[in-house]
Amino acid sequence: MVRRTRAEMMDETRRKLLASARAAFAEKGFAETSMDDLTAAVGLTRGALYHNFGDKKGLFAAVVDQIDAEMAGRARSLAEAKDTAWHALLAEGSAYIEMALDTEVQRIVLRDGPAVLGDPARWPSQNRCLDATREAVAQLLVEGLLRPVDVEAASRLLNGAALNAALWVAACDDPVAMLPKAQEAFRMLAEGLLASSASSVMAPASR
To answer: Gene3D superfamilies this protein is in (predicted)?
Structure first.
């Protein structure tokens, strides 16, 4: 029998705790989930949780980071399938907003996340989304499709618009009905950055 290294065992413990926490936080929410719930479900002790994540809030932050990274990856994959940088930018923002309909995303990231971890714009995971937006804005400027604009300012405003639209959709009484309204508003805000000579890129992207 092959003996596992200490690093391998620690990695397995972290993965077990993350999986247990993700399921519990999605089902019960942060406040109603106890540390005993999280550890007992995978045959571990509170000591393992403390050692790996510090406390329940630290574990929750790790779960949020994991899900948020998956959201950014899914949105980026959809964007990469588009034929232009402009359509990719719109697709990425629209996809991120649409993920507010996912019950796990809705409960953990968009509802409990801000209440437990504070301003989402300051979460480390949001930097990944912001980096992708910066790349897109910089490319569009090089292509002459945008008005003269500061890359950082435009990127932060676009990224913030998508994030806040997702937060709004998740919090409203009828997320399904609000989704297309939020996506349309995001598109219109983004189009405000277009140069007057770039109207042709506003045509629907090829599917």
So the answer is: Tetracycline Repressor, domain 2
